[in-house]
Each structure stands twice: as C-alpha cells, then as structure tokens.
Amino acid sequence: MNITVVLCTYNRAQSLSAALETAAAQIMPSEVQWEVLVVDNNSSDSTPRVVEQFESRYPGRFRYLFEPQPGKSYALNSGIRAARGAILAFMDDDVRADASWLNNLTAPLGNAQWSGVGGRILPDESFSPPPWLALKGQKEKYALAPLALFDLGEKSCQLSEAPFGTNMAYRKEMFEKYGNFRADLGPRPGSEIRNEDTEFGDRLLAAGEKLLYQPAAVVYHPVTENRIQKKYYLAWWFDKGRADIRQCGVPAGAPSLLGIPLYLFRRLVIWTLRWLLSFDSSERFNSKIKVWGKAGEIAECFSRASRQTGI
Question: pTM here?
Fold first, then answer.
C-alpha cells in the first residue's frame, strides 16, 4: 500500500511545525510506503524553511510543493496531482495526530468496498463550550461544525454524510473518476466559504460510493478564542448558506422574486420568530444561526441572479 498525506498550509509556520512533528511520529507497518506532501499555498512566512528542516531530518518522508494560486482548493488539487500514493490522506496544518492516526485511517481502504474513510476530529483538552451552544442530540453536530470538529461516537459505521477535510482519506482513483475539489467552494482571498471537502464527499455518496467512519483515527483540532465568539459562528453560517446554494442550487421552477426562491423568505421568517420568541439561550442562538444561514442562501441567490441579468 502506498500512501500520500496531503497537508496544505498558508502562513502558519509555527503550528505547521507542530503538526509535522505528529506526522513524523506515525507508526506504520514496515511494508507500507508513505510520504507527507506539504503544499505551500503562497506563504510569506518561514514555511519553506520549516518543511526543509523536516526533509533534512526525515529523508524521503517529507516533500515540499509550492502552489502560487491563492486558494485552498488549488493547493489540494496540486497535491493530488503530485501525490505518489494510491491512497491519499488529508490533514491540516494546525492539528495534532495520534501516532496510530494514519494507519487506522487508511487500513480500511485495503478493503475494496470502501472508497473513503473519515476519522474523529476532537478538540484540545482545554476546550470548554460556551453556554449558548446547543449541545443536545443531533444539534451537537451542527453546533460543532464551525469548530471543524467531527465526532460520531466510538463505533465504526458506514457514513451517510461527508467527513471533514482535516481527517479523511480516499483512494486516488476517486479523484480521477469524480474530479477534484471545487475552487469556488474552498477558502481563498476575499472568501471564507469552506465547503470543498464535504462537497467532494457528498459527490461520492450521491454516486453510490461507500465511506467509512473510523473513530480510531483521531486528530486534535485547536479551538482558538475567536472561534467561540458568536460573531464567528454567525459569519460561518452565513457563508455556509452561500456554499449550500453554490453546491446544490435551487429547485427548478420554484417561484422566486429577484432570483430568490420564495420558500427561503418563508423559512427566514420562521427562524426569525423562533429566535425572537425563544426563552432558552442555546435554543435562541441555534435559531439565530439558522437565520444567518438563510440570509446567506438569499444573498447567494441574489448574487447569482444579478450576474445572470447584469443588474
């Protein structure tokens, strides 16, 4: 089995160094050939020197690739093209991976029934959720999504939803068959939309491919102070609404006004009323982020219509 870990980075030399230390410490079977491909997305800090140090310390294990086109999807797609492995694993430049992460994540792909695998993304031990987050039942997944956390429990199962990009692996042939990551759904200068990873997983699921949830493949993702601010959550859900329209579009023939389906206005009113009338703080904020999400959908619909009509 040949494996390439694709790690894209932009101006995070310090956290990158810590992430690469955990990548270097991976415990893999001796018969497995694997590499870590660091894709530098036009960084202006000391990123090249950091990677050079790891290339020197671990000859043949790390490789550096420069991608000048700003945007994470461009970096990801460059990494896919340059990867030597038949299996591609993905991690971010700010996570810490368990020593058994890579083996646990990729081993299931030795079984031909699985096209991809997603692992657990857990917060650092110091993380304490604010009281306004709705962490009950199914709402917990949605509450944790802006924090890039992914935890479906301790039992392995077939996925019915796409995993997150900082802890996932696919056969390289999946990209050859279904295409690469969409540039319009990845973060880039002027846009913080972050849906390129889940859109690709959704694409495979829609095509009938099987994805596995592997809880034994664990990475730890820091939750910085700015990410547990309400304004960050609202901005994230607004961009998520925009991304959903870009990914899925709107139903054909839906009655609309200025390119905006009328059902979006109805849903916006419903969630606004729930936000304003709820007495529970977490329920109230959960409704508020739905309002911002619908506002994002409306904004993207209007933007699309304006481009088409030249308004």
Answer: 0.92
